[in-house]
Amino acid sequence: MPVSAPTSAVFPWSIWPAVPTIMFLMLCAVLLLLLPSIIFASAPLPQQPAQQQPHEQPQQETPVFRTGVSLVRVDAQVVSDRRPVQGLTRQDFIVLDNGDPQPIEYFGRESEPIWLVLLLDVSGSMTRRVSEIAAVARQSLKTLKPEDQVAVMLFSRNTKLAADFSANPEDAAPAIQQAARERSLGAGSRIYESIVDAANYIKLKAANKPGRRAIVILTDNEGLAYQVPDQIVLNALFAANTTLNAIVTPNAKPPAALKPGQQFNPDFIPHDVFKLARETGGEVLKAQNAGETFNDMLDRLRTRYSLHYRPPQQTKPGAIHTIKVALSPEAARRYPKAEVRARSGYVVDQ
Fold it and tell me: How many Å apart are CA 263 and CA 267, to the nearest integer?
């Protein structure tokens, strides 16, 4: 017999009349949920700012004083009867590059600042001479102009920077006065290596800056360089546009020339600051008293001339060019005994 029982359950087919309404409401809900995404997707994307290319600054040509870039610098001294000739002008000079005359584009005299490295040999044999310079250093350096820069380097077996470039003489004087007591640089006297160190230092510090460059070395010119021939030292000095000037002991002299048939070891080269000074346009002064000679050397550095010219076109990087500086015929007539000292060449920049 069928049994019926009351129930509150609702079966699917019992709600069919409400299905369209429910589906409409669900569709509305879905649209409400998707509306922000639809609006975002349809909105125009903000344009990214175009990436700006770095603005190329126009390169300004400044009178850099090395080859291959702008001008070749030649530091010249004119001497008559062992004294500097002053008062010359641009028209009094002739400059030859590989034998060809070159117009002088810049001419300078005492107004140019000096970048000066004092390179002191502190080996045992030079203690007395260093002390003589130390005694006058503070007063001597006061004769330099405010724009001049002075550095101090010491050497024996090794090289040491004792005072960096400074326009204040008070920065260099203490380093010179303490040099005679320097004992940490080993035994021996590596003159050529120290000159290369000093030239590289000037090249680094004075690059593209106006002014003349000079090294003044105090030494006895004795000893041998190991595997550092003259040309390596000259190339370093040429690359730094630097003259080598030497204050030497009274008995110092260039190495003797080899006799015919005499054998030598090419790894050991006699030091010769006389040759280096001659080839770079510097000079050598012998010192009975190094302090007095130091004063004289500083005065003579002020009487030099700076001649700048543009290198010939189509020069090959690494090529060695010769330089010859002479007086014009008219100036040679005025100073018949004059001698012009200038560097003998340069290496074209790589």
Answer: 12
Nearest to 140 by CA among 297, 323, 321: 297
Is 11 a domain residue?
A: no
Q: Is this prediction's pTM over 0.85?
A: no
Which residues span the domain enclosing 236? 112-252+267-302
- Tell me, yes or no, whether 228 and 273 share the same domain: yes
Same domain, 273 and 321: no
Q: Which residue has the tokens 């028209």?
A: 91
Contact at 8 Å (CB) between 307 and 93?
Answer: yes
Give the chain's domain count.
2
CATH code of the domain containing 318: 2.60.40
| pLDDT one-digit tens code per residue, 300-340 | 888 899 999 998 887 787 788 999 999 999 999 999 999 99
